[in-house]
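Section: Multi-chain targets

For targets with more than one molecule, the full set of components is provided together so that the structure can be written out for the assembly as a whole rather than chain by chain. Components appear in the order listed by the source. The example entry contains four components.
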Amino acid sequence: MMSHGSVSELTELEGVALSVVARSGTMTAYGVKEVLAGSPSRFWSGSAGAVYPLMKRLTKRGLLSPSDTATGRRAATTYTLSPDGQRALRAWLSDVDKAVDPGIDPLRFRLLYLSLLNENEKQQFMSEVSQRLAEAIAAHPFPGGPDVFDNRNHQIWMKARRQAFEEAAREL
Amino acid sequence: MMSHGSVSELTELEGVALSVVARSGTMTAYGVKEVLAGSPSRFWSGSAGAVYPLMKRLTKRGLLSPSDTATGRRAATTYTLSPDGQRALRAWLSDVDKAVDPGIDPLRFRLLYLSLLNENEKQQFMSEVSQRLAEAIAAHPFPGGPDVFDNRNHQIWMKARRQAFEEAAREL
DNA sequence: GGATGCATGTAAAATGTTACATGATTTA
DNA sequence: TAAATCATGTAACATTTTACATGCATCC
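Its structure, encoded as tokens over all components, is:
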């Protein structure tokens, strides 16, 4: 049998968290939380309750190296990637199976079931979505951080989703 | 203040579950589980431990009406949408804010952080992803059920993602 | 009639959300 | 210097995963 887990597999949240740390070189839990909170997606809550424990778990797994950076009399921890963390991140980033997974797209789900609405509701929905997508594409800087959820990347994805939306609409 | 919650808001999982029931008119927890398990996305686990309790919660919230359909001596419950369930589902389906949310796209995240890999790794990744996307688009019937995660819809979305991928690649 | 798979769940553990607490720092 | 905001967490609760248990049907 192939050795299945020389590096531990990461969830999307874990992978993104490690990426954020790696990109900066060093980062606190708060910093990671802020980046996530700046995401255009509501699926990244960026809540303290999610992120602080996450960083602890990744530390316990040996993927992050904490250092105590208390300022004044206040406790604080800054993290860097350990060598194992770097390996795990590389494995996550280049995981093609995960990459091609369609993930979760709320628009896709709705188009799949839109026939459950009546004609009026459908029309209304399609027209509002169309408008909102156009706005999202036009809006250069969306509110939030420029790091993970980089504007340009966001725009590219929104354009692709609009295309899917229009194609699906044609077949509705 | 506006009455904020005459119908309870649904998560994506809840919305999809109600949609599956609504489309069939009637369905067991097992049926819903099977549809979810047939999804191309790993984010829908379709595990019994997720679905059976979910159906109970939706029942408790008054959105599903259970009926006892024991066959022989074995307990079984089939569900239909209650009037409140229908309203909640309509509200979910036509929720434009949720619809435009980018959701979770594993490919998007990876392209965002791909610069953390070295040139070789990047090349390898891009070429493999490209191939896998092409395969996914060409493959007419993907393994799994034809209901929620309808082939045609899946294909449209994969095409859109390939376009985003190519555009992002050009700017890498 | 034993093995295999379908159908219906539950239990323990992990993860994530919401809400709170509290120390430090900036701002009015 | 009081109020607001930033930063660092924890606690209770809800949800989800993983793993197990078990009854019925079918097929070999």
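Strands of chain A lie at 27-28, 64-68, 77-81.
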